[in-house]
Specification:
Blueprint lengths: L7 E6 L4 H11 L3 E7 L3 H10 L8 E3 L2 H5 L6 E4 L6 H10 L3 E4 L7 H13 L4 E3 L7 H10 L8 E9 L4 H6 L11 H5 L1 H11 L7 E4 L4 E2 L5 E10 L4 E8 L8 E5 L2 E5 L10 E8 L15 E6 L4 H19 L6 H21 L5 E2 L1
Parallel strand pairs: 1-2, 1-4, 2-3, 4-5, 5-6, 7-11
Antiparallel strand pairs: 7-12, 8-10, 8-16, 9-10, 10-11, 12-13, 13-14, 14-15
């Protein structure tokens, strides 16, 4: 291979379940290769490689995270560790000049995230969180139509939801319900998507006020299992709500309401199909005479995808890394900024919950 064709070498730090999906994405991405896997023990890392048919003569297996970070051939790391471990290991990765694809939620709070991003900036490495849906071509198409003022008008309201009910084993033993591991619970795991989608629809503008809503549920250890919140933009006169839960039926809804149109879909986080995804779009809808029907039905907009969205995420991240390595480009600031705004709103929801549902002014 020529230098321009050399793939970005990824290392995976932590063998969480989501790492199975991302290891496949690295394999599918044309500009990436999986170079190394690390876990707290070499047995666990080896078992992960065997289970997912990853073993090869070129794959390195490490029994500690530090060993992987010391590998000079690793360009970038994907890090699906418990959120409580992000601060330490993300900074270690940045200081070893490894570009960082960090699983969400990125940190326990924005102060921790700022330290991670600062380490990435000081060391000239790319930061991105692993929210896959941003990278699907459907997301770009939706934004194109929402930004069309004639079609859509001004964004007036948004609603998003992310919920699932994985069962009692999850609720008792998963790291996402353990206060010392992923203490943000459903707010961090599922709410991260909801908040991200709302900010995306508002062009990454922070709300004026964030208020948690009644109905917060916690487990016996105090970890959030269900919550919802409202966000309000005073200048734009726009309102948004979201709902996230570990004890409710599967939902991944996103609805954006404009003054001239509406956009909605039921699978914004994980599309129903890998090869294409759709959304419903309506513009200029009216009731017919006597209000016995409508003058139109929603338009179903179908968007094809050559690769699964997680592979597109890897491909984009690797392209940014390659540009830094080959062309001495600076890291793309869009992605850390997007993560930071999401973390700020998540922190505000958490604060509102902790203060008895009081509004938090941003």
């Amino acid at each position: 291979m020529s230098n321009s064709e050399t793939p970005i070498h990824f290392g995976i730090i932590g063998c969480a379940e989501i790492a199975r999906k991302v290891s496949r994405a690295i394999y599918l991405s044309p500009n990436s290769t999986l170079h190394a896997i690390a876990s707290r023990s070499i047995e666990k890392a080896n078992n992960f490689a065997i289970k997912n048919n990853l073993l090869s003569n070129s794959l390195k297996i490490y029994g500690s995270y530090s060993e992987l970070l010391d590998d000079p051939l690793v360009d970038a790391v994907y890090m699906p560790l418990p959120t409580s471990l992000h601060l330490h290991w993300a900074i270690c990765a940045a200081e070893k000049k490894k570009h960082l694809l960090l699983e969400k939620p990125t940190a326990l709070n924005v102060e921790e995230l700022d330290k991670i991003v600062d380490a990435c900036e000081k060391n000239g490495v790319q930061f991105m969180d692993a929210s896959m849906w941003y990278h699907h071509p459907r997301t770009c198409k939706m934004m194109e139509m929402i930004l069309d003022s004639k079609l859509f008008g001004h964004v007036k309201a948004i609603h998003s939801s992310s919920s699932y009910s994985p069962g009692q084993e999850f609720l008792e033993n998963d790291i996402r319900v353990k206060p010392g591991l992923d203490g943000l619970g459903a707010l961090g795991d599922a709410g991260w998507y909801c908040i991200g989608a709302i900010l995306w629809a508002m062009n990454q503008t922070l709300p004026t006020t964030v208020t948690a809503l009644p109905g917060v549920a916690r487990n016996s250890a105090g970890v959030i299992l269900t919550c919802s919140a409202s966000l309000y933009w005073e200048k734009e006169e726009t309102v948004a709500t979201f709902y996230c839960s570990f004890v409710s039926h599967e939902t991944m809804d996103l609805r954006v309401y404009g003054s001239n149109g509406t956009c909605y879909l039921y699978d914004f986080i994980i599309p129903f199909d890998e090869n294409s995804a759709s959304f419903n779009f309506t513009s200029g809808a009216k009731f017919v005479d006597l209000h016995i029907g409508w003058n139109m039905k929603p338009q179903v907009v179908e968007v094809a995808s050559q690769l699964p969205q997680e592979a597109l995420m890897i491909q984009e991240f690797a392209s940014l890394v390659k540009a830094i390595k080959v062309s001495t480009n600076k890291p793309e600031s869009k992605w850390p900024r997007t993560s930071r705004l999401t973390q700020l709103v998540l922190d505000a929801v958490n604060k509102s919950i902790d203060t008895g549902l009081q509004p938090v002014h941003m």
